[in-house]
Amino acid sequence: MAELTERAQYLLKVLTERYIREGQPVGSRVLARHAGLKLSPATIRNVIADLEELGLVSSPHTSSGRVPTVQGYRLFVDTLLSVQPLEHSVVDSLKQNLDAGAGSDTKSLVNNASTLLSDVTRLAGIVTVPRARHLSLRRVEFLPLSEKKVLAVLVISDKEVRNTILKTERNYSAGELQQFSNFLNEQFAGKDLDDVRAMLVAELRETRESLDRMMATALDMADQVLGTAEQGSDYVLAGQTNLMDFNELCNVSTLRQLFAAFNEKQQILGLLDQCAENDGVQIFIGEESGYQMLDECSLVTAPYSVDGQVVGVLGVIGPTRMAYERVIPIVDATARILSAALNLRD
Question: pTM of the entire structure?
Answer without folding.
Answer: 0.72
